[in-house]
Write a sequence for this structure.
């Protein structure tokens, strides 16, 4: 069994995880939920035996192997790939370690590798470099690496985030099968709706404390838990758009983006081609499709973060790409939040500076700011309830808290075009409702046009009346898109 008593873990001066008592005997099937920054992921690492120098009494199952899947593990693998990157030395663009090599690091069982890759639909990326994968595809690689180790205990932190609908259903079926095989699965979740029926016991964490624990239904009915998951939309409002933010003068219905016969292709494959798409002011688009179909690549084309934007017939804010324009003339009217940005935002920066950097479209803050701009950034930190951590390093926060700060960074200037690539990834229930309220209010105000990627039908707000839907994919010839 797992037993934790009088646990105290402080990774830094900004956070402490305290657990008075937690006993998880064999036969009980546990999941943990809680607020962002509550310590859920730290608890997952604790159960997996990946934290040293802990005060307290710990009893762990003996002779049993354990695997952990989490955003932190994903970040560590991405960081390792960065450290191995020798592009600057060799003056070539590298794609990173091929997926097949990453899988062979944990297993030599070729048949099992093939089986799991077929099940999760990534056989076609086995020879592809890890750095060229989509966010969802990297998540699948991480899942398969863990499953190939055939652990006795599998701890999964936010298993469904980043996965398309079919992959979510596939993973749920996989969990059900592993559960039937008596493999112990411990889940850490933000969405209560994702709790499997076979979970018997639940723990709820808040502000570094295991607030309550016990049988699943009793925890879900706990009034303290209910109150911490309640979002008061009536008391919510956005900070006003400020004069220090760039303003793009365009009439309702005028074109912000025109893409003609859009194409992204590499020597061995095409992501998509022949895509014609016009985005007018006031049209809010949902971009929908399976993992790997090119959603993020398409958005990067528009934001100027994909090198092939210059090879396309692309007009943004009346500027034809490739005409000698300054990228900053375009970026000042764009806000963006994505998993890729979160992985890239590794500079030493506190929360206040991170939000302020959104005014200058930089990773890190390299401009002098005045008190008025600081007041605006603090207003956004108050909206996400992190003003008390304004001087804390961004990297000291949990994944979900970091996501909130980067959402505030994207929204601070209430840009003409706001790109939201799975913005609710890693957010707890109440913060998910908060961010959806941000999005809905921005749509109502009419100053920002929204492009939105999500794999969760429940996160599709009524304001997204337009759809760009991937209707089919092909590993060689690319994806086919339809605007609705």
């Amino acid at each position: 069994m797992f037993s934790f008593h009088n646990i105290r873990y402080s990774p830094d001066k900004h956070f402490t995880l305290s657990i008075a008592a937690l006993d998880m005997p064999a036969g009980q099937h546990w999941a943990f939920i809680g607020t962002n920054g509550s310590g859920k992921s730290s608890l997952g690492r604790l159960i997996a035996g990946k934290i040293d120098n802990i005060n307290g009494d710990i009893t762990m199952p003996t002779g049993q192997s354990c695997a952990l899947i989490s955003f932190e593990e994903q970040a560590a693998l991405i960081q390792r790939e960065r450290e191995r990157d020798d592009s600057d030395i060799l003056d070539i663009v590298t794609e990173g370690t091929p997926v097949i090599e990453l899988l062979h690091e944990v297993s030599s069982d070729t048949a099992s590798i093939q089986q799991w890759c077929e099940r999760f639909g990534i056989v076609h990326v086995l020879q592809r470099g890890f750095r060229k994968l989509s966010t969802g595809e990297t998540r699948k690689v991480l899942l398969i690496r863990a499953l190939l180790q055939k652990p006795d205990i599998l701890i999964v932190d936010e298993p469904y985030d980043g996965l398309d609908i079919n992959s979510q259903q596939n993973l749920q079926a996989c969990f059900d099968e592993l559960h039937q095989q008596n493999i112990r699965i411990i889940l850490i979740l933000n969405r209560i709706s994702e709790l499997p029926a076979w979970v018997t016991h639940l723990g709820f964490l808040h502000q570094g404390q295991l607030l309550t624990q016990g049988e699943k239904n009793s925890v879900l009915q706990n009034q303290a838990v209910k109150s911490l998951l309640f979002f008061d939309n009536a008391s919510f409002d956005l900070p006003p758009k400020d004069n220090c933010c760039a303003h793009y003068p365009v009439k309702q219905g005028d074109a912000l983006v025109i893409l003609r016969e859009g194409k992204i292709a590499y020597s061995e494959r095409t992501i998509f081609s022949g895509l014609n798409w016009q985005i007018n002011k006031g049209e809010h688009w949902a971009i929908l499709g399976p993992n790997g179909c090119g959603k993020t690549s398409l958005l990067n084309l528009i934001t100027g973060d994909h090198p092939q934007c210059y090879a396309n017939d692309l007009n943004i804010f009346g500027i034809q790409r490739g005409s000698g324009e300054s990228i900053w003339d375009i970026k000042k009217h764009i806000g963006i939040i994505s998993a890729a940005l979160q992985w890239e935002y590794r500079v030493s920066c506190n929360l206040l500076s991170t939000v302020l950097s959104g005014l200058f479209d930089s990773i890190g803050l390299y401009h002098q700011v005045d008190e008025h701009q600081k007041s605006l950034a603090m207003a956004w930190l108050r909206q996400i309830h992190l003003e008390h951590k304004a001087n804390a390093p961004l990297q000291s926060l949990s994944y979900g808290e970091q996501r909130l700060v980067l959402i505030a960074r994207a929204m601070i200037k209430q840009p003409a075009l706001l790109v939201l690539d799975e913005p609710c990834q890693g957010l707890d229930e109440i913060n998910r409702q908060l961010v959806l309220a941000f999005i809905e209010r921005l749509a109502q105000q009419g100053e920002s046009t929204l492009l939105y990627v999500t794999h969760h039908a429940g996160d599709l707000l009524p304001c997204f009346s337009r759809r760009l839907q991937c209707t089919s994919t092909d590993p060689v010839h690319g994806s086919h898109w339809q605007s609705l």
